[in-house]
Specification:
4-stranded antiparallel β-sheet, alpha/beta
């Protein structure tokens, strides 16, 4: 064989190997994670359909969510998914890293006066997937670094406090510049400010933000979920080569609505509001634990924002499926926490009540997961390892991850035939509360030694605070041991001082779930 023939043969072999590698990459599943902000588990319409009657404790809200209905019909619907720390920044840190606040650096909301930042050296799921050949993209709200005054008066990032720097456009969420804080996200489309129609957008795709460069502020004046969905659809279609089509993708979409504000008609889309405009007070608040803390207007605007987010989520999923990408994409819908919306005379979150602690969770993976209802007790730190497990990438789960891979449990056709967790934790370090949710109880110990204890089966609206000593002895011991287990696993500061040991058994061995 002459040199030319040898060269051509080698070239053919190389091209064939590259082609096989590309095909292999294409077979690797994509990941689309969609999570709204402050979305009540009860605020999904399908709970009202015959198949789902009685699936959750109590009644659902009178909302319209046709696209979530469709997603639920094709996926696994979870009835007991919980937000381990039901506040924006702590939840995001747990979701991204699979670790608890003491490991990831965020134990309260990021704020100009806080000292919380997601640690740069953590292997977030975006880092892991990027390192293993994935396109990575992030759209929407971030809220995982401390705001600093390194912007000019027009909210452009200048990186210094010296003039023209020295300004801070938002005291909570802030633009994240290129570097380790982006955790290997290639395509960046960050949206900030709690205003659904006027917010700041920063992107490394100039065509998506009016020609602005990364760090220059682009002001959008349309409903945030609408322009985010349009940009994601453009990314999926890959109209401008925003991604390498030979690679699988990981898209994370963090929507701000239905997060407050919800105080006036201008806080929502009018066409969605009109669906609720004529509902009576009793229709809007169809639960016995309601109070006058929330007005009819609050409820109407909140529900309208739920419906609007449903509409734009539907547009993205429709595009995914119409492009032929849906069959090979793990789709996850969830939220960072719930919203009290007047129950127990409270608004918003960061409490152990089911309406704040509980979250929606739907997972669709065509050809792998069958549609079913699942009462698995799954928390925030469990999501990362479970995603990777479902994608066949459990070997990539870093040692740092303290959540559990429940992919085998979720794949099981018969709920209850695979070992299932006894409880999932509730941790509020800022509020100085620790607790857990079992299939029956919600049990919380406060820093001053007082407790709340609810039997969610007999008291779904959590109106009767039980006496701990009145429980059966075996239930008391189970709650003590479970809470001790979670506090030790999460390296909670209560452990060193063994606080409130009358309610917490610190003698349990806390090891990572196997």
């Amino acid at each position: 064989m002459n040199k030319l023939s040898s060269f051509l043969l080698l070239l053919l072999i190389t091209l064939s190997a590259c082609n096989q590698a590309q095909k292999s990459a294409q077979k690797q599943p994509n990941l689309l994670i969609i999570f709204t902000d402050e979305h009540r588990r009860q605020s999904m319409e399908f709970w009202q359909l015959p198949e789902y009657k009685g699936a959750i404790n109590g009644v659902s809200d009178p909302v319209f969510t046709p696209n979530l209905n469709n997603l639920a019909a094709e996926g696994v619907v979870f009835t007991q998914a919980m937000s381990t720390h039901p506040v924006c920044s702590p939840h995001r840190a747990m979701l991204l890293s699979g670790t608890f606040p003491m490991q990831n650096g965020i134990w309260k909301n990021c704020h100009l006066n806080s000292d919380t930042d997601l640690k740069e050296d953590l292997a977030c799921f975006t880092d892991v997937l990027y390192d293993n050949g994935y396109n990575t993209a992030y759209f929407g709200k971030c809220h995982w670094i401390k705001p600093t005054n390194v912007f000019d008066q027009d909210a452009n990032y200048v990186g210094t406090t010296e003039a023209p720097g020295g300004e801070m456009p938002n005291k909570y969420d802030i633009y994240i510049p290129p570097g380790p804080d982006r955790h290997s996200v290639e395509y960046w489309y960050q949206v900030l400010k709690d205003n659904h129609f006027e917010h700041y957008v920063y992107s490394n795709d100039p065509d998506a933000v009016g020609g602005k460069s990364d760090g220059e502020m682009y002001k959008s004046m349309e409903f945030s979920s609408k322009h985010e969905a349009r940009t994601i659809i453009d990314y999926l279609k890959n109209n401008r080569n925003q991604r390498d089509s030979d690679k699988p993708f990981c898209i994370t979409w963090s929507l701000n609505p239905p997060h407050p504000p919800y105080n006036k008609l201008a806080d929502c889309e009018k066409e969605s509001y009109e669906l609720y405009e004529n509902m009576s007070h009793d229709q809007l608040f169809n639960r016995p634990n309601r109070t006058d803390k929330a007005s009819d207007l609050n409820a109407r605007v909140y529900y309208a924002n739920v419906t609007s987010t449903d509409k734009y989520i539907g547009k993205v999923i429709h595009t995914l499926d119409s492009l032929g990408l849906g069959d090979n994409t793990l789709v996850v819908f969830t939220s960072d926490h719930g919203e009290m919306l007047g129950s127990h005379d409270r608004m918003q979150k960061n409490c152990e009540y089911e309406e704040a602690f509980g979250v929606p969770l739907i997972i669709r993976y065509k050809g792998v997961l069958k549609h079913k209802l699942d009462d698995l007790l799954i928390g925030t730190t469990d999501l990362y390892p479970t995603f990777l497990g479902l994608m066949g990438l459990d070997h990539l789960i870093p040692e740092q991850v303290l959540g559990t891979d429940y992919s085998t449990t979720i794949k099981d056709d018969q709920t209850g035939t695979v070992d299932r967790p006894v409880s999932t934790p509730f941790i509020s370090i800022e509020g100085n509360k620790k607790g857990l949710r079992t299939n029956k109880y919600t049990f919380t110990v406060y820093g001053d030694g007082t407790i709340t204890l609810f039997d969610n089966l007999s008291d779904p609206y959590q109106q009767a605070n039980l006496e701990f000593d009145m429980l059966p002895a075996e239930d008391q011991q189970m709650l003590r041991e479970e809470l001790g287990y979670w506090l030790k696993l999460s390296q909670d500061p209560w452990v060193s001082e063994k606080l409130h040991s009358n309610y917490i058994d610190y003698s349990v061995i806390a090891e990572k779930h196997l």
